[in-house]
Each structure stands twice: as C-alpha cells, then as structure tokens.
Amino acid sequence: MNHISEEQLVLLYYGESDEAASIDQHLVECEECRKEFRALQLVLNTVDSAPVPERGAEYGRAVWQRIEKRIGKRKQRRFAQWWIWAPAMAALLVTAFLAGRLTHKPVGTDVAKNQQIRERILMVAVGDHLERSQMVLAELSNAPDHIGKLDITDERQMASELLDDNRLYRQTARSTGNTAVANVLDDLERVLIEIAHSPTEVSSGQLDDLRQQIESRGLLFKVRVMGTEVRQQEVAPAPKKDGKKL
Amino acid sequence: MEVEAGSAVERARAGDSDAFRLLVEQHSRAIFRLAFRMTGNEQDAEDVVQETFLRAYKQLDRYEARSSFSTWLFRIASNYSLDLIRMRKRHEDKRERGSDEERDILQTIPMDTPGPERMAYGTQVRDRVNAALDELSPQERTAFVLRHFEGLSIEEIGASLGTGTNATKHSIFRAVQKLRKNLEPVVGHAR
User: Which of A20, A192, B144, B152 would be B175's cystine partner, CB 3.0–4.6 Å?
Assistant: First the structure.
C-alpha cells in the first residue's frame, strides 16, 4: 500500500473512512504515516482548546424572555388569520351602515338610537382594522436586521387584505365627517399599498425603505393612538345626541 | 430526549407557546456554542441564537422529523452564521482594500513565551486557534465546525448546507490543511 494521503487521515480521524481497517494496518507498519497522523491529531486536538464563553443553566430561559414577545406576536397574527372572515364581516357592517344612512329616513327618537347603535358597531370594525394594521406595521418595524432576503409573504398578504377594508372605512369616515380617522386611514392606506406591492422577499435596503415610510409618517404611533381612541368610544356610554360620528 | 422534543415540536406547531419555550430552553446553549464557534464573536453568537429560534418558529411547519430537531436547528443556525460571517468578511475586505501587503494574522501574536508560564502559553495557543479559525473561508469554517465540534457527519453537513457531500468533504480538507499550516508551529512548542 502507498502512503496514506492527508485526506484519508482526516476521514479516519473523524471516523468516516470506508477503509479504516486497511489504513489502521498501514499505520502499524509505516512510521512515516504514523508520524503524519500524530501531527494531524495534535493540531485537531489543539483546536478543541478554543474557548467558548460559558452560558449557565438559566441561559435558555433568558433567550426565551428575549424572543417571547416576538413569538407572541406571530402567534397572535396566526390567530388573526383564522378570523379571516372579520374583514368581510366588517365590510358588510360598513355597507349596512351606509345603506342605512342613505335609505332610512329619520323618524323620531328610535331612529337616532338605531343610528348610535350602528355607529358603535362600526367603531368595533374600525378598531379591529386598526389593531390588525398595527400588527403588520409593528412586525415590519421590529423585524431584526438581517443578512440577505427577508420573507415578508405573511405581512404582504395581510396588507393586501387590509387594503380593501381600509378604503371602505376611509370613505365612510370622510363621508360622515370624521376627518381625524379619515386622515389616519389615508396615511395607512399609502403604506399598506407599498407593503402589498413589495416583493415576497425584501432586501435589507427595501425593508429600510418600508420602515422609513412607517416612521416618517409616525404611522405606528398614529394608528396606536387612534385605535385606543376608537376602543374607548366603543366602551363609552352612547352619546345622547350628535355624538362623534364613526 | 428526541422523542420528547418531537412531541414538543408537535405541540408548538399546534400553537402551544409553552412547548416552544421548552425547545428554546433545551437547545439554546448548544446553539450558542455552535454560533460562537462559527462567528468567533459573542455578540454575533447571541444574535444567531435569537434569530435561529425566531426563524425556527416561523418555519416549524417545514420541519420534518427525518432529522433530529437539534440538527434542524443547527442547520438554521449555521446558515444564518454563514451569512453573518460572509457579510463581516466583505466589510473587512473593504476596509483592507488598497493594502497589497500579504499579512499573516498569526504573525501578530508573539510566540516567544517562556516555558514555565503555562497559563499564559495556554491563552496564547487559544488565541492562535481562534486566529487560525478566522483564517478559514466561511464555507470551510461552517463545514469544519459542524464536523469537528458538533459531530455531524459529512453527509448531514452537505445536506444541511445544500453543498453536497463532495464539496463539504473538500471544505473540511481545506480547513484542516489551513489549520495545520497555522497551528503546527504553535503546537510544536507544546511537544
């Protein structure tokens, strides 16, 4: 047998040689190869001395605490996916609301009461819409800085779903004179369009652009504040007359 | 252990965050060790750990029980580490562009330590090992770390990195050659 190559010795060291028996036999007989193998072992054993900073038994828990919130968000978003009927339901509510305003002639106090009930139902729909929009914006704003491409398929799909509802709510808000809500929905719509039209995988530069759009409009903050206001109106007692519309 | 992990994976897939927490707690230290050996940097290793579990959670549906859960996590961690060290290399290359001088990083570490100072000598050896690992290309380092420290077979590594068995084997051979070239003068002192 010829001398053993370095590659054969490496495979032998790692226990992956197909010819271990014959190489072992050769090493017994060949001083030169034995010396070569010993040198290889020495280097590779020395590599093991490279230190790794210790992490204690509690490390796993600390890692979990760092990621729990973001895992929670994903879970919440998945949860959101099963109430996929919500946008359709909300759209129906808005349509019913508009139909009611256009076709129903006010007769006495019952009508005013019905109007308030409709507006409250609408608040619920807008509140949900803002909450779901906030999830998409927060997901992108808080995405980790990454190398290469980041998959935003879920965010893109959700933005696309939210877009139609957003148009409907914005038009309704505008037509009922609620400028504050209409303006926030207007800003939101522009960013949702950008997200919905983004590629499914974005580079860090493209992600930065999206983040910048969200941040430059202070959108996340506005949506949060508006969502809270809308929620408060949901739970507040119904105004006796001429309450804030939408 | 893997049977338990399998059941935790199933529960995590079904949305049980407590099950995923168990997996994070169980595998974090191993992922940190791998990430540190890959990146050679504590902060990067922490990022890798965090990102590995976030990606794993997102991709749980893609996990197939054919490989162990830890091997699957190693794959995610090593691919992310690979991206990270490639990026770092690119940055370093940019910084060093313009200098034609070939320099051996190992030459920057003095080796004329007196014999009796064994602790100091040990530290120097470790520094040199780290420096020698830094000399490997990202692909070589990844393949070497997974084979040498994590005990994955060459076939598993090739499948994990998508490079195939032969290319992986050659990455490991090249890594070993470079390590020998850089470390044999050092371990010669120890003999």
Answer: B144
